Amino acid sequence: MIRRGRCPTCGVTSARVHDRYQCHPIDLPWRACSVQVALTVRRFCCDIRDCQRRTFAERFGTAFLPGVRRTTDAGTLLLNLAEAAGGEAGARLARATGLPVSPGTRLRVTLLRLLRHSVLASAPTPRVIGVDYRTVQRWGAWYRRGGLPALWSHRLGGPGKAPWLTPEQQEAVAQDVATGRFRNAVAIGAWVNQTYGVSYTESGMDSLLKRLRCAPKVPRPLHTNANLADQEAWKKGAPRHPSRCRDTARSGCGLGG
Ligand SMILES: [Zn+2]
């Protein structure tokens, strides 16, 4: 028996046993009889102070994965049956060979879940697919509605709606906005409506400006009593970190004002 267990989080071994528990994973059937393994699992304490895991169960290699109700071989057999015959028939075959699976929906879910895990686990998960997640959601909705044919029937990246303003008009808007005479998108919208007879909503105008990469110039508010020279002088003399400012004030060398 291996005396020490290796923490899956920090990788340091430990011999301090926290407790033991029994588990009975289902193994490959023998002559159409179901077989269950009686396994005593030790739970070790992780002694590394910085490790986020306090206890961990001992591992038995790939034959018995933690938290799984079947051995890996039994899971593979079930999966092969599910892939070959589908959910319901696969479950009937599994029961006939002596591999117990619970009846009804639970069984179907078990097989489908196994099937899905195998499909997803066989390929690395893409991290960047280059489309918005809402697009992916839409693809999912089409697929659920009509399967692959429905998904193929949609033409992605079509021409879209025609813009309300011609490219020349859009260029004119961008140039006019760049002069800085508008204070907000509503004012630009009113001007566009007056000039070209096209009325944009506020958010529509916002997205148009975003597309044109221009924005109304909004001046920063300035207090009537503000003294710009004093502000500049204060900026140069002020410490960069407020916390250090407190420390220096305590030690007797304040802002010098
Ligand atoms: Zn650890």
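qc> Residues 7, 9-10, 12, 46, 48, 51, 53 surround zinc ion (CB under 6 Å).
qc> done
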